[in-house]
Specification:
The protein is an alpha+beta fold. Helix content is 26%, strand content 34%. The strands form two sheets. It has a five-stranded mixed sheet with strand order 2-1-6-4-5. A two-stranded antiparallel sheet has the order 3-7.
């Protein structure tokens, strides 16, 4: 199974690439997909850990949410087992080193 990452303009970047400084991601809007029935748990943890909530949580039936985040929050969500994917939803600047 491929390592989980954030998808920007069709290219996936892993948490390791971000942590190693090989990639810098600007703040932007991202869609985060989670395991079915785990969204409330993920969002509750994000509120407690980061004091963060998505701009659009979508309905409870949809296992995803949409919100503004920077590199720190992207790394946070990539570290969560219940998160399946993260992808940019709009203009995001990426700098590969």
């Amino acid at each position: 199974m491929a390592e989980k990452g954030v998808s920007i303009e069709g290219k996936t970047f892993t948490a390791k690439q971000i942590k190693d400084g090989k990639v810098e991601i600007s703040e932007g809007t991202f869609i985060v997909g989670v395991i079915k029935d785990k969204k409330a748990q993920v969002l509750s943890a994000a509120k407690a850990d980061l004091d963060w909530a998505p701009e659009t949580p979508f309905s409870d039936a949809m296992p995803m949410f949409w919100g503004k985040m920077g590199q720190d929050k992207i790394l946070y969500f990539l570290g969560k087992d219940d998160v399946e994917f993260i992808e940019a939803d709009g203009v995001v600047t990426i700098c590969e080193k």
